[in-house]
Amino acid sequence: MVQTTAALAVYPGSFDPLHLGHVDIIDRAVQIFPRVVVGILENASKDSLFTPAERVEMIGRLYAEVPSVEVRSFSGLLVSFLKELDATIIIRGMRAVSDFEYEFQMALMNRRLYPNAETVFLTPKEEYTYLSSRLVKEVIGLGGDVSGLVPEPVLGHLQARYRKATHPPTR
Ligand code: PNS
Fold first, then answer.
1. Which amino acid residue places its CA nearest to atom 9 of ligand 1?
2. Is the pLDDT of residue 84 over 90?
3. Looking at the predicted structure, is the pLDDT value of residue 170 above 60?
4. Res 4: pLDDT
5. What does the angle CA 71 – CA 104 – CA 29 come to, to the nearest 5 degrees?
6. How far is it, in rounded angstroms, from Cα 29 to Cα 155?
7. Going by DSSP bridges, is the β-strand pair 89-93/8-13 parallel, antiparallel, or unpaired?
8. The domain 5-129 is classified under which CATH number: 3.40.1190.10, 3.10.450.50, 3.40.50.620, 3.30.1490.100?
9. In testing the pocket of ligand 1, which one of 41, 114, 133 has its CB within 8 Å of the most ligand atoms?
């Protein structure tokens, strides 16, 4: 039998940006696990809106008053990050059937790489099931309103980022 450590769960993702569906999953995870580490992948994608450091700062501030939530970034394999934290539980949100195949493949690959790894899927509130970071970026990038879809401080950062993009400073 594999050994899982349920004291700590890792919620990995890109979180570029964090939206209310993610917040809902974190809220659920803290009801189940004593400690939740939000792990932000430090990928080198040029499509990223915010740098990993900006995301850690932004999300870290949101949870500054919640002692059971810690926000960190990681690079490389998720299972290496789990081992570094002495964790075995991976939290992932499952919004719809369309998420299933990708999530199932990841869960099984992670288990193959680290047999103690156990992925726990949590479902967000129905009102967030269509929400994704990609859509949030697309909508605000085209001038649409994303208030009510992301936490207020994240909305401020998004607006500032897109204002800068549409009105670059003149010299
Ligand atoms: O929010 P996302 O982008 O769907 O999150 C994907 C993430 C970060 C969980 C996944 O890409 C990941 O774990 N990347 C780390 C590299 C890794 O371990 N790859 C093999 C996983 S099967």
1. 13
2. yes
3. no
4. 78
5. 35
6. 23
7. parallel
8. 3.40.50.620
9. 41
Å from CA of 60 to ligand 1 middle: 20
Closest CA to 51 of 165, 170, 157: 157
Compute the mean pLDDT over every residue in the chain, rounded to the nearest whole number. 94
What are the residue boundaries of the structural domains of the chain, listed by start?
A: 5-129
pLDDT reported for residue 9:
98
Task: Assign 92 to helix, strand or coil.
Answer: strand
Q: Ligand 1 pocket: which residues have CB below 6 Å? A: 12-14, 41, 77-78, 106, 109-110
User: Residue 24: which of 154, 158, 149 has the closest Cα?
Assistant: 149
